[in-house]
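Need residues for this backbone.
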């Protein structure tokens, strides 16, 4: 139905149910789409990481801001290249 309209599916949590999450991640990847997980944890298991294209880690702490803040505790990775992508979100503060 959405073929050609989307490139990535974002999962907001679910890492506390790893088997269910991995099942869904594999299904998305089988459709040729990239995968992303936003987690409040500092890291996730290797089994989950192996199914992800992108991973955002770290809990939301209002005083530190989100990915667009140079003071954030959150990290956004491209797991294909192991590159930290936080710099792509900065607004020039």
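Answer:
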């Amino acid at each position: 139905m959405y073929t050609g309209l989307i490139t990535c599916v974002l999962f907001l949590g679910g890492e506390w149910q790893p088997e269910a999450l991995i099942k869904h991640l594999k299904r998305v990847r089988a459709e040729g789409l990239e995968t992303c997980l936003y987690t409040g944890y500092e890291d996730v298991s290797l089994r989950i990481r192996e199914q992800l294209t992108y991973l955002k880690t770290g809990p939301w702490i209002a005083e530190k801001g989100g990915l667009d803040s140079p003071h954030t505790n959150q990290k956004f990775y491209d797991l294909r290249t192991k590159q930290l992508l936080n710099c792509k979100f900065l607004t020039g503060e």
